[in-house]
Amino acid sequence: MDIRHLQYFIEVARFQSFTKAAEHLFISQPTISKMIKNLEEDLGVELFERTRKKVILTDAGRLILMQAKTIDNAFENLNTQLNDLLGLKKGHIRVGLPPIMDADQIIQILGGFHEQYPHITFQLVEDGAKRIEENILQEELDVGITVLPTQEDRFDHFFLLSEELEVILPPAHPLAGRKQIRLEELKDDSFILFNKDFVLNDRITSSCKEAGFIPKVISESSQWDFIGKMIASNLGISILPKSVAELLTQEVKRIKVIKPSIAWELAIIWPKDQYISYATKEWLAYTQDRLSTDARGSASS
């Protein structure tokens, strides 16, 4: 048995299919089937119950899967730490980005970092802030962007940006001509929100409750441009960060929210008390310095 046996086993358990796991690993199905069979013989247990539609972990398989993931993570960390020890300027960073933000600033930072470290690669994963935090804790992401406040006992962080949220209305809405809107004036409207993986969903709901009503949510999505199209089609209204609202190409109206005004702060987070790779440390240091430089430039202009 070697590490590949365990890695192939993890992928079959993940996809519940030999075929899909083989496609993901770019190997043939007979190869992966043979590897799993060899692993079962080495361990003396059956790992999967094979059915016509999918494979299901046995009790022994579930137990071994937990240990296999631990061993695989330890193996990956070993390679990473050896590279760090040897001073190799290469690596891979997995970054979680919420699709509800204007990513231009982060993309520019990544571009500048790439010029200095051309052999460090990136994987950008779009998801809600809640899921990003979960994936960092599960070591599926290295860093991510989330909404403050974050779980300070689990994450270190530094500030990224703050911005106001705006009401987005269809042009025919009775309040579309206003310069500002009290939140309570929207109590009879139908809301289109980001789904519950996004902290924005919680932020809007709690602000509406503060204004004296529970929003009537008719639809949820994970894509801001789709929400914009729904609003333009008179299906409802929404509340979005100002930078994202400015990206909407549909014919909609953007209006300031007051009483209560709604704002949020975003931060870059990484896990406490876990190994952080050389590449990730370098990117965090570069990003923090870049943000400080940009802030000083904005203040002096």
Automatic annotation (TrEMBL):
GO molecular function, one term: DNA-binding transcription factor activity
Lineage, uppermost ranks: Bacteria, Bacillati, Bacillota, Bacilli, Bacillales
Listed NCBIfam families: trans_act_CidR
One cellular-component annotation, GO: cytosol
Cross-referenced InterPro entries: HTH-type_LysR_regulators, LysR_HTH_N, LysR_subst-bd, WH-like_DNA-bd_sf, WH_DNA-bd_sf
Name this polypeptide is given: HTH-type transcriptional regulator GltC
PROSITE patterns: HTH_LYSR
A Pfam match: LysR_substrate
Domain HTH lysR-type per the UniProt entry, residue ranges: 1-58
Domain of life: Bacteria
Organism of this sequence: Halobacillus karajensis
Keyword Cell wall biogenesis/degradation: no
Keyword Transcription: yes
Homology family: Belongs to the LysR transcriptional regulatory family.
Gene responsible for this protein: gltC
